[in-house]
Design brief:
It is a single chain. By secondary structure, the protein is mainly α. It has a domain of 227 residues. It contains 13 helices and two strands, in the order αββαααααααααααα. The protein has a two-stranded antiparallel ribbon with strand order 1-2. Helix 1 packs parallel to helix 7, helix 3 runs antiparallel to helix 4 and helix 10 packs across helix 13. It starts with 6 loop residues before the first helix and ends with a helix.
Length: 336
């Protein structure tokens, strides 16, 4: 179902974006000197895409903005799910665990364990009638597969945060796309506020992370941000807009999944740092990251348009078009 969003809803959505962008940019500016004083620095190595020591952990400002802005939405509206505080708790837990990983490291099993805890808690926030896979399977199987997909999404989001600006751009475009689907489709408008605030948080961080980045997001930013994005995509899917939920993150999904499968088939450990992603192949060490990110942004804009079109257009048409967009992008990146 398609409807024209009320001007007040649209204005509030824009306000959420602008407020979050300003907050994120301000918090990032305040955080950068602290990271330098504490010597939380990412040193270049053979698998890095940067050549100079750069502070990491700047994503803490993004996560703080998400938590504060989402809390404000929950307090000021009555349309967020009753279990929504569990989502906020999951974001905070993953930020703490990932912050420890940034500072002194954690085992992959420990990180994965906390991700599973956060995802299970997040899924428990959904209503019993909110089926991610449209009710085509038993509820226990729906929740189980959704949990696996969400955990994988959190990790792939972290894996893909390898060059300046790419995760900020991905988060912003997905957030704008989800907000548009919630506004235009027959869905609670609070979802648009949440998505717009998420996009604003990522956009406010982007000037600090654009090539050449003054600081990196770090696991403290990419992991909980991936969790928040995954939650929004699940909300979109439970409103029957599953095609949009697949299309919006499809570049990240395909690049990360194909790269993982190729590494497994070569007998390599998939969790170890590497430079095998398509965007990494397209960005040699010392080259401008901006060129690659602009290509990703151009493809994401097309995917965003297809996600909106999927509200009323046939699913197979939109999915086929999205597959072509992603395939062309991967081919361009692989041959850059």
């Amino acid at each position: 179902m398609v409807h024209r969003p009320a001007m007040t809803d649209l204005a509030r959505t824009v306000l959420c974006f602008a407020g979050a962008a300003i907050m994120s940019g301000g918090l990032t500016a305040a955080l950068l000197p602290l990271l330098r004083r504490r010597s939380i620095i990412d040193q270049p190595n053979a698998r890095s895409s940067h050549t100079a020591p750069t502070p990491r952990g700047g994503g803490a400002a993004v996560v703080a903005t998400i938590v504060m802005s989402w809390s404000a939405v929950a307090l000021l509206t009555t349309m967020t799910p009753s279990g929504f505080p569990r989502i906020l708790i999951g974001i905070v837990v993953l930020a703490v665990v990932s912050g420890i990983e940034d500072v002194r490291g954690l085992s992959p099993v420990t990180r994965l364990g906390w991700q599973v805890v956060a995802v299970v808690g997040g899924l428990s926030a959904l209503g019993s009638d909110q089926m991610v896979f449209q009710g085509v399977m038993a509820p226990w199987l729906d929740r189980g597969l959704a949990a696996l997909a969400w955990v994988w999404f959190v990790n792939l989001f972290n894996f893909m945060d390898g060059i300046d600006g790419i995760t900020s751009v991905e988060t912003s475009t997905i957030g704008v796309g989800v907000a548009a689907v919630f506004l235009i489709g027959d869905a609670p408008v609070a979802g648009a506020y949440l998505a717009s605030a998420l996009a604003g948080a990522a956009t406010g961080f982007l000037p600090w992370n654009w090539y050449r980045a003054r600081l990196f997001m770090g696991d403290v930013g990419s992991v909980p941000t991936g969790y928040a994005v995954g939650y929004l995509l699940i909300l979109v899917a439970t409103r029957s807009y599953w095609v949009a939920a697949l299309i919006l993150p499809s570049y990240y999904l395909v690049d990360a999944t194909v790269t993982l499968l190729r590494r497994v088939l070569r007998g390599q450990k998939p969790w170890e740092p590497h430079r095998d992603h398509f965007y990494q192949v397209a960005t040699p060490v010392g080259a401008s990251h901006a060129v690659t990110v602009v290509k990703v942004l151009a493809a994401n804009v097309m995917l965003l348009a297809l996600a909106i079109a999927s509200i009323w257009a046939p699913a197979y048409v939109c999915l086929a078009a999205a597959a072509i967009v992603v395939a062309v992008l991967l081919a361009v990146l692989a041959n850059s």
